[in-house]
Amino acid sequence: MRCEYVNCEREAEVIVVFDGRAYHLCRYHMSRLIRSLEKNAKGRTASLQDFRVKKERGKIRVYIPSESS
Ligand SMILES: [Zn+2]
To answer: Is this model's pTM higher than 0.90 or not?
Structure first.
């Protein structure tokens, strides 16, 4: 199973659930998501619910909507 992140051809190693749907991600993209979650947390509680998934060319792009901009 390939990583479902857009433009990624790596082998998926983890399954993450966003909005009740499971997505396969490689280790690289998983750690990227965790880092952006940590950055976004800034003292408050961070959770996977903060992420939004955007479909793009049959793959996905995951991002955290910014509150400041
Ligand atoms: Zn990936």
So the answer is: no
